Amino acid sequence: MSNTYWDPARYGLFGNERLRPAIDLITRLPKAASGFSPRHIVDLGCGPGSVTAVLADAYADQSDDTPRIIGVDSSDEMLETARKRSENIRWQKADIATWQPDDQVDLLFSNAALQWVPDHSHLFPRLMSFVRPGGMIAIQVPNNFLAPSHQLIGEAGIEWRKEVAEAMHAARIMRPGDYFDVLAPSCDEIDLWQTQYCHVLNGPDAVYNWTSSTILRPVMAALPDDAARASFTAKYKERLNQVYPIRDDGRTLFPFNRLFMIARKRAS
């Protein structure tokens, strides 16, 4: 995905809401007390580095040497923010679709990033090839593509059906069972689960502000001109506010589904 799509300030408007699934994923990972002490950790699609910092803290109290942690992202703007956050983490610019490590990884982590990379049936075996035997992957991807927040994009953009459809196709995932099938040949422990978060958002056009920092960015970039973007935005906001009405207290409830997976690579 082009790094021109990303604005750390807008993305950070919902920092707590976006951080929570990552914390839930990190909490489920085994720690040193259970015998898992990763020495080489990679966060693919690290964004502004907030999740990478939490990941680093989770393994900072290990009894032996501090693990080497690398945050990988394709956005200069995101990495600039990440570098200000921590100098103890190595920040690397790379396209996560083609990235490969300089040596095998003990823990390959990714929070809400791999949905932008196509062809997961080939991507996931490739990522597993970078993990040492006995190492783990931990991945979270949004699974809200059938929700009104996403479906209404196509409705509002019906006049530019082709452009919108191609842009929406930039983000996609497989079914949970498909992930199990691609991980099973190389993994002996696979944990898959889904969670629906009910985010409490503040202010007018709250759901629009959320989607405009993620799934809507490639759509807006694909529309032909400012007039088209203005027309699309007006229609999309109107329908969003009907489906996700603002409450009398100024807050909006936004259900959001996410898919999680943790898998340990077979030792032999």
What's the layout of helices and strands?
Layout: H1 8-11, H2 15-28, E1 40-44, H3 50-58, E2 68-73, H4 76-85, E3 90-93, E4 105-111, H5 120-129, E5 131-142, H6 148-156, H7 161-168, H8 176-183, E6 187-202, H9 206-211, H10 216-222, H11 226-243, E7 251-265
Parallel strand pairs: 1-2, 1-4, 2-3, 4-5
Antiparallel strand pairs: 5-7, 6-7
Helix pairs in contact: 2-3, 5-8, 6-11, 7-10
Notes on the protein architecture:
The protein is α/β, with parallel strands linked by helices. Helix content is about 40%, strand content about 25%. It has helices at about 10, 15-30, 50-60, 75-85, 120-130, 150-155, 160-170, 175-185, 205-210, 215-220, 225-245; strands at about 40-45, 70-75, 90-95, 105-110, 130-140, 185-200, 250-265. Helix 4 links the parallel strand 2 (about 70-75) and strand 3 (about 90-95). Helix 6 runs antiparallel to helix 11 (about 225-245). The radius of gyration is 19 Å and the shape is globular. The two termini are about 35 Å apart. Mean pLDDT is about 90; it is low at about 1-5.
